[in-house]
Specification:
Shape: globular
Strand content: under 5%
Number of strands: 0
Helix content: over 70%
Distance between the termini: 54 Å
Order of helices and strands: HHHHHHHHHHHHHHHH
Structural class: mainly alpha
Radius of gyration: 22 Å
Number of helices: 16
Length: 412
């Protein structure tokens, strides 16, 4: 009887692809055009497939999660806990960013700020932002990948199915079956992860190289250290306090998702993988993860918030400006509110940064100082964003289990 060869786990494949991509990318700096024209396209194909699967996964996973709860009040309770957790950790994250920025400010290099140019994105008012959360038709949110609107559609449809009562048996079965189909499709796409990761990362490092890092090294260390404190400190402490989960055990189980997030730099792309990992490896109910993870990918941007704090102080330092305590508080509030609705796609942090700089009167052109290395930060802050989503999911799941246990004890 022939023994089947053990297949290398997907997580290890992704990690190997990541290391190889960095090495190859740095070696091919002189061939950046080749990586752009012949390697990047395969990475783009992989990202396109991820974008294709994200919308239906979000729509049906949230719908199925809501339907499985069978109670609109329960959905509201979970939703409130989730949003409160996200808002608190985001505010805490930007505070870490500001503290870290102030500590590292004395080490920041002086960089020339003349001849800088950056085009300010069109500003949207608060009321317009609220209005834009609600879709005007069924199709455009799917086409445009407007995740907030997709979530609203999923909530409305899920609540409607619950309201049907006994009539919804066939619809529930159909939704679950469709959700399973898209999950299987997602599994097939994720098998291409090592190839996609290699193509995306090798192209990034071939274009950036070491030359862009050297003048900004101290600034980069400040940002990465603040991100690490949030990811491996704050979240792990919260998990230990609220769930008793061993931080090392969590990181070990969730590492494949973190590596995947680092490679793709998009929170939305990790949604299916996060849900699957938390369900199979951490034991979180899909009822909870199917609701909290897609919501977190849309409104929870802790890594991005940290980046705003350090970046605002760095840019102010380059212009010879010292931020006042009032301005720092404004940064906290602006970054926290701006994180809601910021698309979980590469580069979204730059739009947020423009909003933050404008709120405290800093020159938006200062973004040009950090634009060259933003892709590296984008990968790092995406890891923090999705780890924050996962920690919230586990905490909320644990709180719900305790609530159900108390309810059962009272009814016994």
């Amino acid at each position: 009887m022939n023994k089947q060869k053990k297949k290398l786990p997907l997580a290890m494949q992704i990690f190997i692809a990541l290391i190889l991509a960095i090495v190859v990318g740095l070696l091919m700096q002189s061939q950046a055009a080749f990586t752009e024209n012949y390697i990047k396209p395969f990475g783009t194909i992989f990202l396109n497939l991820l974008k294709f699967i994200v919308v239906p996964i979000v729509l049906f996973s949230i719908m199925c999660g809501i339907i499985s709860m069978k109670d609109i009040k329960k959905v509201g309770t979970i939703g409130l806990k989730t949003v409160l957790y996200y808002m608190c950790t985001t505010a805490f994250a930007i505070t870490i960013g500001l503290i870290g920025g102030n500590i590292f400010q004395r080490f920041f290099p002086v960089i020339a700020t003349t001849d800088l140019a950056y085009e300010m994105p069109e500003k949207t008012s608060v009321m317009d932002t609220i209005v834009n959360i609600f879709p005007s038709n069924f199709i455009s949110p799917m086409v445009e990948s407007n995740m907030l609107q997709v979530i609203v559609i999923a909530l409305l449809l899920g609540f409607s199915i619950i309201k049907l009562g006994e009539k919804n048996i066939g619809i529930v079965k159909a939704c679950n079956n469709i959700n399973e189909i898209f999950m299987k499709c997602m599994e097939m796409i994720l098998k291409l992860s090592p190839i996609g990761v290699f193509c995306l990362i090798s192209r990034t490092f071939a274009n950036i190289g070491f030359s862009a890092f050297i003048p900004l090294a101290k600034y980069m260390i400040g940002v990465l250290l603040a991100l690490a404190i949030q990811c491996f400190g704050v979240y792990q402490i919260l998990l230990k306090i609220f769930t008793g989960l061993n931080p090392i055990r969590f990181i070990k189980k969730f590492f494949p998702v973190m590596a995947f997030a680092f490679s793709t730099a998009t929170s939305n792309a990790t949604i299916p993988m996060s849900i699957d990992t938390l369900s199979k490896k951490v034991g979180v109910s899909k009822k909870i993860s199917s609701f909290t993870i897609p919501l977190g990918a849309t409104i929870n941007m802790d890594g991005t918030a940290i980046y705003q704090g350090v970046c605002a102080i760095f840019i102010a330092s380059c212009y010879g400006i010292t931020l006042t305590p009032t301005q720092m508080l404004t940064v906290v509030l602006t970054a926290t509110l701006a994180s809601i609705g910021t698309a979980g796609v590469p580069g979204a942090g730059m739009v947020m940064l423009a909003m933050v700089l404008t709120s405290v009167g800093l020159p938006v052109d200062g973004i040009a100082l950090v634009a060259g290395v933003d892709r590296i930060f984008d990968m790092g802050r995406t890891v923090v964003n999705i780890t924050g989503d996962a920690s919230c999911c586990i905490v909320v799941s644990n709180l719900e289990k305790k609530r159900e246990a108390r309810k059962s004890a009272r009814n016994a």
